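re: that chain from earlier
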Amino acid sequence: MKAAVVERLEGPDGVVVADRPEPRPEGAVLVAVHAAGVSFPDLLLSRGQYQIRRDPPFVLGVEAAGTVVSAPAGSGFRPGQRVVASAWDSWAEMVVAPPDRVFPVPERLSLAQGVALLMNYHTAHFGLVRRGRLRAGETLLVQGAAGGVGSAAVELGKAMGATVIAVVSDRGKADAASRLGADHVVLAGEGWLEEVRRLSGGGVDLAFDPVTADRFDDTVRSLAPEGRLVVIGFAGGSIPRLAMNRVLFRNIDVVGAAWGAFVDRHPDLPARTHAELVRLVESGRLSPLVGAELPLERAADALRLLEGRRAIGKVVLRVREEERA
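^ sequence. v structure.
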C-alpha cells in the first residue's frame, strides 16, 4: 500500500510517499482510508519535536476517516460502515485502530469533514467544556480562529450559546471565521487587544488559545475579572512565560487542555465527546470546515500549509475518492 513516510526528521522535506506493508488487524478494526487528517502534531512529529519521539522511517498521521474492511466480533462495526479512527500511521491506504478509538461518521458529513470532527472538535470540546467551563451567554475569544482547532472552537462556541470574538491574521481568514459564525472578527495587528476589550465591554469570559507566542500576554490582558484562559498549544512557535502576579491580582484562571494526554487516563472520554458532537452535527449546528484537500502524494505540501500558518479550517489528505449515493 502507499503511505506518507518520514525518512528524515527534517519536517516536510523529509517526507516521501512510498510502499509499506498493509497492516494486520489482529483484534483491531481495519479501515480503508479515504481522508487522512493533517494536524499540528504531524508537523512536530516530522521534525522530531513532538512529546512522543518516533525514529524514522515511520508513517505519519494520527487520524483517518474511511470505510470498515473488517472488525472484531462484538465491536459494533460492520464492513462498509463510514468511520473515523484515532490511530498512528494513518497517512496510508489502510489503517488499523482498536474498536474504542473508532467512531461513526454522521451521514450529514463527508469523510473529509468526518476526519475534522475527530482531533479538532474533540480538542475544542475538551478545551471549552471540561477545561474552560464555557456557559451560554458568555463571551469567548478564539485565537487562530481560522485554523483547524480554532475554527472548531468558533463553531462549537456558537453552538453552545456564546458570543464569539475571533482573532485571525489576515482578511482571507477573517472571511472564514465569519462564515463559521463568529460574531466579531479582529485582525491580529496593532490594536487588536483594545478592539477586543471594546467589543466585549471590558474583557472576555473565556479565551481559547492554540497560538500563544507573541499574542499570549495580550490574551491574558483580554480577560475580564475571573476570566479563564485555556492554553491549547503553541502554533506560534514559542512557549511563553507568564507573570503570576497577573493571575493573582486579576483573579483569573490559566489552565492547560492537553486532550491526548488526558484521554490516556480517561479512555471513556472520546466516546462520550463524540456522541455529543454527533448530536450537534445532526441538529445542524456543526459542519466542519475543510479548507484544503490534497492528494496523498502531496503530503509534504500539506505539512507546509501548517508550517507557513496558511491553513484555513481542516487540511485533509485525499487517499481515495468517496462515492456516496
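The mean pLDDT is 93.
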